[in-house]
Recover the amino acids of this structure.
């Protein structure tokens, strides 16, 4: 079983766990009773995690700062892996991968082709949801790193076959002559029938790979294709290759992932604005002259105190509803508030163009299969 598909309750020695330090820092670690997970907030011995339920908060009291620091230990999922994996390339993020899998109708019976593998972000999401994933990578070091990672995560023993291949030149067919792919040693067969019904191409030139798909796609069902390209010129060439090779229902989509946050915003009146303008004008007029005057009126000791401790010469500006000044807590009952929605800008999404198409090779209706399927549906 893989770390990504086997659900466990309790953290154990040897597990791959994802340690959530903050929303932007999630670290993969292999649990080892002798190891310590160090952060700038403090050190967390793995032995304190072993035996605790996944999702637990592990806290420490840091003697130096006298503060409480904590982390959460989480079980790996493809979504968390995407946020924590070592980047070797640009990757596909969850807002895109989830949409693509839904559009390609991925399900536990799907047989998927992916090229290139890159950092394996999308491969993990496919591996969890589909029957079989054939993934191809032509960069030798990246191929080896992805293969080692898939092995470590148990994906190679389950449903993933990775091949070192330039798919634009050599296509997708896998035979026993391929030494970098499926291990045929324990089988009689000499090739794999890929019969893919979903294809995802994240390549600089997908139009060069599209003509090779004909030989490896399923012929008895609708096959979905998605190409992921950052430039509109690439989309143009991809669409041309799709239609020249018999792909139909071509559609281009761009995902603009956004997270919306509900907040309260202070209601400001015209009087507030006028008051603020008057205040600015008054302060300008007083300006530097006033500063000298105040300093001159002070005793040497008071002056030294002001300079050494950077003390303000005048009272702090009263609350300024337009920014600087005294701070008011959101929702303070002394002010009027309205409910607003704010967009969070940091959400990670690659925002490439997604070009979808589909193909049905054998358009003859198999009456017997239809009848059998209908019977199964209505039983
Ligand atoms: N989708 C991947 C992920 O989510 O981690 C990232 C893919 S990365 C952007 C593109 C990868 O395609 C690179 O690793 C590159 O080496 C590989 N590649 C480019 N051209 C290729 C080709 N003709 N055959 C196989 N792999 C190729």
């Amino acid at each position: 079983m893989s770390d990504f598909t086997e659900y466990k309750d309790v953290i154990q020695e040897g597990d791959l766990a994802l340690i959530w330090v903050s929303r932007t820092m999630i670290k993969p670690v292999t649990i080892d009773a002798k190891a310590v997970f160090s952060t700038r907030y403090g050190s967390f011995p793995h032995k304190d995690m072993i035996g605790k339920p996944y999702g637990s908060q592990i806290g420490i009291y840091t003697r130096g700062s006298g503060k409480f620091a904590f982390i959460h230990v989480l079980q790996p999922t493809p979504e968390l892996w995407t946020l924590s994996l070592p980047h070797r390339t640009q990757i596909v993020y969850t807002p895109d991968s989830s949409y693509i899998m839904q559009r390609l109708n991925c399900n536990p019976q799907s047989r998927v082709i992916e090229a290139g593998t890159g950092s394996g972000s999308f491969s993990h999401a496919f591996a969890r949801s589909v029957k079989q994933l054939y993934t191809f990578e032509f960069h030798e070091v990246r191929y080896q790193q992805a293969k080692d990672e898939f092995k470590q995560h148990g994906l190679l023993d389950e449903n993933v076959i990775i091949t070192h291949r330039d798919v634009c030149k050599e296509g997708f067919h896998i035979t026993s002559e391929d030494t970098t792919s499926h291990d045929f040693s324990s089988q009689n067969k000499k090739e794999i029938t890929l019969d893919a019904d979903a294809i995802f191409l994240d390549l600089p030139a997908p139009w060069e790979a599209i003509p090779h798909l004909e030989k490896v796609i399923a012929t008895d069902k609708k096959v979905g294709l998605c190409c992921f390209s950052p430039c509109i010129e690439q989309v143009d060439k991809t669409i041309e290759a799709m239609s020249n090779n018999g792909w139909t229902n071509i559609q281009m989509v761009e995902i603009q992932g956004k997270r919306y946050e509900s907040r309260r915003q202070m209601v400001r009146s015209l009087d507030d604005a006028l008051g603020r303008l008057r205040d600015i004008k008054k302060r300008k007029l007083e300006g530097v002259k006033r500063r000298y005057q105040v300093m001159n009126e002070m005793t040497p000791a008071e002056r030294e105190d002001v300079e050494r401790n950077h003390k303000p010469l005048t009272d702090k500006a009263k609350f300024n509803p337009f920014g600087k000044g005294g701070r008011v807590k959101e929702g303070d009952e002394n002010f009027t508030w309205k409910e607003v929605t704010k967009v969070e800008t940091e959400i990670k999404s690659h925002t490439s163009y997604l070009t979808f198409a589909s193909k049905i090779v054998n358009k003859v209706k198999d009456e017997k299969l239809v009848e059998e399927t209908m019977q199964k549906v209505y039983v």
User: Anything to note?
Assistant: The chain has three domains: 16-76, 81-258+351-377, 261-343. The chain has a mean pLDDT of 89. Residues 89-92, 115-116, 118-122, 136-139, 142, 166-168, 202-204 surround S-adenosylmethionine (CB under 6 Å).
